[in-house]
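The following block was generated as part of the benchmark described in Methods. Ligand: pyridoxal-5'-phosphate.
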Amino acid sequence: MSRPAIAHIRLDAFRHNYRVAKQHYGGKALAVIKANAYGHGAVQCAKSIRSEADGFAVACLEEALQLREAGITEPILLLEGFFEAAELADIVAHDLWMVIHAEWQVEVLLAAKLKHAVHVWLKMDSGMHRVGLSPHEYGQAYTRLKAHQNVKNIVLMTHFANADNLASAHTMQQVQVFQETVQDLHHSANLQTSLANSAAILAWPQTKITAIEHHWSRPGIMLYGANPIIQSTADNILQPVMQLNSRIISTVKIKKGDAIGYGSIFTAERDTTVGIVACGYADGYPRSAKTGTPVAVDGNITRLIGRVSMDMLSVDLTDLPATGVGSQVELWGNHVSANAVASSAGTIAYELFCNVKRAHFQYFDPSNI
Ligand SMILES: *Cc1c(COP(=O)(O)O)cnc(C)c1O
């Protein structure tokens, strides 16, 4: 057996979470699998729900082509559209949908000679102030696109800045800006809109705006089993998808007052049995995780101690006398939530997942056994 750092990916949990997203919000749901499915493996994740997914969303053409080459024929939305006009030929050839989030993209699309018309998701900046057409540019862009032969269909879209904050009034202010702008458009009865990310799906049912529209949600992080609403007290209805595991490869007994690891940042408060785990920041475990971060050893919660190094980290085994070399370690997954590690490291589960590398990936899907 080679180095024991392994990311186990439960595709049945991924599928469960996709179903939760759809049931929770209703309408259609575009599974967001950008950035290699938040580090989980985009092709494997897409294949596991392709028979039921309404479509997928990725960040760029390269990510979409990887899915097409793997045989994914379902709709794929490019969340940032194209970065230059030269991509349009591939977008048309592979039948991809695109977000249009800037005036320059409107101009490029309208000036292009396309083999056939494309699906556009026209993004409004309703208050996040990152990308999107401003509410006063939006109507004109919509009208021009709608009338043009290059455009088959337009979904009206915006993105929330603060949906993970239950106390913020900003989410409903964004909905109001969006709704007011959209009301002025001379659209068909068959209006399609898309507003909700995971946080809105889980916590803001009131962002579903009218009865007549068809809405598309865009769940991302919740598909991977992490609840973006950290202060949420609701029962966790999501299942973790990634379990980052390794093993204890060595133990060392130190005396009260001894320090361990680089920088000697941890000094033992008592005589301590230290377990050395084959996982470090080169595997994606955050170097910024502090002493005290939960780690599970043979299913028991203990703590990280000292500085995380590139290939190894240290845990406190003093109160777990049955553990030792060979014991199974879970860095996050079923016993330790990625959110708990993230908050101790000053980051979010999104970043932890995206950073996992070097560890071997093993996929598990009981429906395919
Ligand atoms: C990444 C992304 C999402 C998914 O967000 P989560 O918080 O992971 O659910 C949805 N919409 C857009 C436009 C995105 O870029």
